[in-house]
TrEMBL record:
Protein name: Formate/nitrite transporter family protein
Transmembrane region(s): 41-66, 78-98, 119-144, 164-188, 200-219, 239-261
Annotated stretches, region: Disordered: 1-20
Residue ranges with Basic and acidic residues bias: 1-11
């Protein structure tokens, strides 16, 4: 006799994850990364730096396409629609991106399963891979764009100048907000149970970063480094200052406003 499945209640497998379950999953995922070799972490991070370059390519395409038809403010808002593409490729492809992993990798330290020195070493390899990959895709982008006729070097300069238009204080606070959102992205992805929902979460969070103009160190590295290569108006010191400020801001946003607060909220709830 066949049973009727229409009246089945929601099972634990498809019910929403609790705060403690998300935290345990995040710590477990982070520990898996800690167990990887340095070479594996660097190569995965290098891949992420390359893949996220597709966001930069699309930003240049949109900027060049609408340059003569819309004012500059509208162009930067339109760019927010294509900004998430690189993030989707990176996150769903499981490459290691510094801003997504910042809060995640801090959790084992807060839980006393890893040491601070191990965290900083891991961050070093992740950043080295992300930045190196970004530089490589920068070289490809500033060559292929003009060759295909989809944008020219003046567009690259325009994008880089836009990223650098604020002073370092503005960039720093903006980067904190971007790091905060990227930390939340990692947290939300853990509670998402389907590819479609994960894509939607990635798109919404990163589109907010794009439309608000918040500074993301890894995408920003590609944008400003590309501008440095094609323009005499952008100095190497500006590039280094921007990159250092954005990295520190992103790290603070992810560690303080996501990892620390969410971990403490769990701890104060009386759980181990």
């Amino acid at each position: 006799m066949e049973t009727d499945d229409t009246n089945k209640t929601e099972t634990p497998e498809n019910s929403p994850m609790s705060h403690s379950e998300i935290l345990r999953e995040q710590i477990s995922e982070a520990l898996d990364i800690y167990d990887k070799t340095n070479a594996s972490i660097f190569l995965s991070s290098l891949t992420a730096g390359l893949e996220i370059g597709f966001s930069f390519l699309l930003i240049c395409v949109v900027t060049a396409f609408f340059n003569n038809e819309n004012d500059a403010h509208l162009i930067w808002k339109l760019n927010a629609f294509v900004y998430p593409v690189g993030f989707i490729l990176v996150v769903l492809g499981k490459s290691i991106l510094f801003t997504e992993q910042t809060s995640l990798l801090t959790l084992p330290v807060l839980n006393r399963k890893s040491k601070v020195s191990d965290l900083f070493k891991l961050w070093f390899f992740v950043l080295a891979g992300n930045i190196t990959g970004g530089m490589l895709i920068s070289l490809v982008s500033i060559w292929i764009g003009p060759q295909l006729g989809i944008f020219d070097t003046s567009t690259v300069q325009k994008v880089a100048t836009h990223i650098l238009h604020g002073d370092l204080t503005v960039i720093f606070v903006s980067a904190i907000l971007a790091g905060w959102l990227m930390g939340l992205l990692s947290w939300l992805l853990t509670s998402s149970d389907s590819t479609i929902s994960r894509i939607l979460v990635i798109y919404i969070i990163t589109a907010v970063i794009g439309v608000m103009g918040f500074h993301h160190s890894i995408v920003g590295n590609i944008e400003v480094f590309s501008g440095l290569l094609v323009s005499d108006n952008i100095k190497f010191t500006e590039y280094v200052s921007f990159l250092a400020t954005a990295i520190i801001g992103n790290a603070i946003g992810g560690v303080v406003f996501v990892a620390l607060l969410k971990y403490k909220a769990f701890a104060y709830n009386g759980n181990d």
